[in-house]
Amino acid sequence: MQNKNNPQSLKNFLLHYLDHSTIRNLSPKTIHTRNVCINKFITWCDDRGLSRPVDISKQILERYQKHLFLLRKTNGKPLGINSQYIYLSNVKTYFKWLTQNNHILYNPASDLDMPKLGRTLPKNILSAAQVETVINQANINTHTGIRDRAIMEVFYSTGIRRKELSDLKIHNLDTARGILMIEHGKGDRDRVIPIGKRAISWVEKYLTEIRPQYVIATSANHLFLNAFGEPLGLSWLSQLIKDYISQADIGKQGSCHLFRHSMATLMLENGADIRYIQMMLGHADLRTTQIYTQVSIAKLKEIHTTTHPAKSGHTRHKDKQTIQTDGTDDFDYAKWQEEKQKQTPNKPEPKTYH
User: Fold this and answer.
1) Is the distance from CB of 9 to CB of 38 less than 8 angstroms?
2) Tell me: the pLDDT tens digits for 81-121?
3) pLDDT beyond 70 at 17
4) Catalytic residue numbers?
5) What CATH number has the domain spanning 128-300?
6) CATH of domain 10-100
């Protein structure tokens, strides 16, 4: 076990690195992730008698990378490629900081080959009709039903993330202008996005009729509250939406993010520019948003239908000839053969060589 009081230990430098991250105003979540990932590496180093940054070489890091690749979780499954990437990238960033601050002479992680990340498509996307089916599962004759309907309307209208909805305050919603302010979203970025009239009307109904019955002194200004007057927990929110999707019996599974994926895909199919969708979703990189261009096949299907050579009907096979019909059944094959022969010039007799 490393002594954090040893000024040259990986553990001691980690404390300074986390302080540096705090001073840079990085989000608490980012700092927590760095702490977890780098401590995992330090623990692995401890088991091998490696305690100082100068003890770490590229070969050591490659061994750690192989360790992550072979690692199995408690359920026996391997660590996902994305998880491996996150662990390694945080270690790389740590050693970059050590080098920049002259704690080591060279960066052993600079040439480390990272795992190749694949961009997986969303597994389920709801049609507009399916979204309506899910939303209508909320019993609007009950207090919780009105609140749940308002929650789902906000998810569908704005495509915000689960935590962003949980963190919403009353002052974030401007009903007069039809906008929603997202504070400290992913990457600690703020953004202002539109919210539809239907969603606003349900939120106003909830605010007028339901929230006053839930609110308590410690509720602060959170927009959505549970029956105990507390802000919505993330796991609770996931289970709520999951149950409504299951109840809808539409043959698809998912939770909060399903509204986000569906909103983005449906907007794209209806002609929205992808950069506007990027602003709605709060993506820092347009490439993240472009995944929805692969999910949305409506335009591709339209082009395929209008341009594919087999679009106009079915094919017939007679005497090894393939004829494209216009979809009717009154095709005169004999007449077609006669016309074809008229258009084909007679071939000259082949020369005979003696």
Assistant:
1) no
2) 999 999 999 999 999 999 999 999 999 999 999 998 766 66
3) yes
4) 161, 186, 257, 260, 283, 292
5) 1.10.443.10
6) 1.10.150.130
